[in-house]
Amino acid sequence: MFGVKYVINPYVLSSSAATKNTVIYNAIKDYAVEGDITDSAGNIILGNGSAGVSATAASPENYSYAWLLGYYSVNSGKENSFGLRGNLKEYSRYYLDQANKGATVKLTTNTGLQNYAYSLLNGEEGSITVLENKTGAIQCLTSQSTIDYNVNDTNTLLNTTVESSQYRRGTYEVDPPGSTFKVVTAAAALKKQEDESLSDSFFDYVDNGTYVPAGSDFTITNYANRSYGNVNLESGLNHSVNTYFANLGVKVGGKLIQDMASKFMIGKTIEIPFLGTISSSIDDLSKADTAEIAQSAFGQGHTQVTPFNMALIAQAIANNGEMMAPYIVSSIHSGKLPLYHFFQHKLSTVLDSTVDTKLKAIMHSTAVGYGLNEAQYGMVYAKTGTAECADGRIHTYIIGFTEKYSFCISMNNSGTSETLWGTARQLVNYLNQIAAK
Question: What pTM did the predictor assign?
Answer without folding.
Answer: 0.92
